[in-house]
Design goal:
Alpha-D-Glucose-1,6-Bisphosphate, Chain A, domain 4; seven-stranded mixed β-sheet; about 30% strand; alpha+beta; binds zinc ion; glutathione-dependent formaldehyde- activating enzyme (gfa)
Length: about 325
């Protein structure tokens, strides 16, 4: 005997938001009425373990094997009784991306085996109702994530930017007194937001704000004795205030490095507004530093609303310059 339990739902959220919720099984207890518990690693061939709960049916242990993971598109797991031909159930979620903001979810389970005859009727009625309940809960959660308006950075969230150059302004650390002060004596370029794990950011910021000035244009005018290298082994050595931890500038010592001759600064440390960021780089790195993958869609939408294109490296123009720098080195 073979049967398919088929359900579907339209969700007003990006496919990668819906998928991120489905793939984050550790958070199932927060929302999933059908599979309120599932533990393990969701990579192909791994076994995960939890329980299946359907109203009117006994709660049963669940120990399926992941058979397919296609990021943002498909997730499948297979439960099978050891006796061949007895019972086999492949549970799957297929995400059809209608457009960037709408996902049609197919949530099915293919059943087969001699044992199915005894259980198909309740699966088809009570089981179906439980699947539909999960679909509704998933829709609610995904649409809630998709409508979030996350704070990006205090210097961006207000939406007002410096109208004049920062030449002559002073970067100040966060200490209440005896601040480290660094005067900017040249133009500030390539201001951007950054999601990497190395750039310093204020406590309330999701992304760092960072820009460059060309070498010789920074002058430590006060508190220089409080500056210390954060990690001298990095290509860009960041100098921070020992007392408050604010990074005051970053410098490259390797004359062959593509950023040699540039100093990195956090332009929001001046007294007035910061310059408008030209782009946001390394946005996906936020996931590696603890941001829930399901939040990424709203973060990218918020950047887009602020007129800030998001990339997962530097901007295309900087990436092209880095590539050209590699050619220069190879030919010299
Ligand atoms: Zn300080
Ligand atoms: Zn960074």
């Amino acid at each position: 005997m073979k049967e398919t339990l088929d359900t579907d739902i339209t969700i007003e959220a990006p496919a990668h938001t819906v998928w991120a919720i489905l793939d984050d099984i550790a958070r199932y207890p927060e929302w999933n009425p059908l599979v309120p518990e599932l533990g393990g690693r969701t990579t192909v061939d791994q076994q995960v373990e939890g329980v299946l709960t359907r109203e009117g049916m006994p709660t049963v242990p669940l120990k399926p094997t992941l058979t397919a993971i296609v990021g943002a598109r498909e997730l499948r797991w297979l439960s099978e009784r050891p006796t061949p031909g007895e019972f086999r159930a492949e549970h799957y979620f297929v995400l059809d991306k209608t457009n960037d903001d709408i996902t049609n979810l197919t949530h099915n389970e293919d059943f087969a085996g001699t044992f199915l005859e005894q259980v198909w009727e309740p699966i088809n009625t009570l089981g179906r109702a439980a699947y539909e309940k999960m679909n509704e809960a998933l829709k609610l959660r995904a649409e809630s994530y998709a409508s979030e308006k996350p704070a990006l950075h205090p210097a961006v969230d207000g939406g007002s930017y410096a109208s004049e150059s920062l030449v002559g302004q002073t970067l100040r650390c966060g200490c209440a007194c005896a601040q480290v002060e660094v005067k900017i004596n040249g133009p500030v370029y390539h201001n951007h937001l950054c999601g990497c794990s190395k750039c310093w950011k204020p406590a309330e910021a999701l992304l760092a704000m960072i820009a460059v000035v060309s070498g010789g244009n920074l002058e430590v005018t006060s508190g220089g004795e409080k500056l210390a290298a954060v990690d001298g082994d990095q290509k860009i050595v960041r100098y921070a205030c020992r007392d408050c931890g604010t990074h005051m500038y970053g410098r490259v010592d390797d004359a062959d490095h593509h950023f040699y001759g540039l100093d990195f600064i956090h332009p929001e440390l001046v007294d007035g507004p910061a310059p408008r960021p030209e782009f946001a780089g390394f946005v996906s790195s936020l996931v590696e530093t603890g941001t829930e993958p399901a939040r990424m869609g709203a973060i990218r939408a918020q950047l887009s609303d602020a007129g800030i294109p998001s990339y997962d490296a530097f901007s295309p123009e900087i990436m092209d310059m880095i590539a050209w720098h590699k050619v220069k080195l190879a030919e010299s």
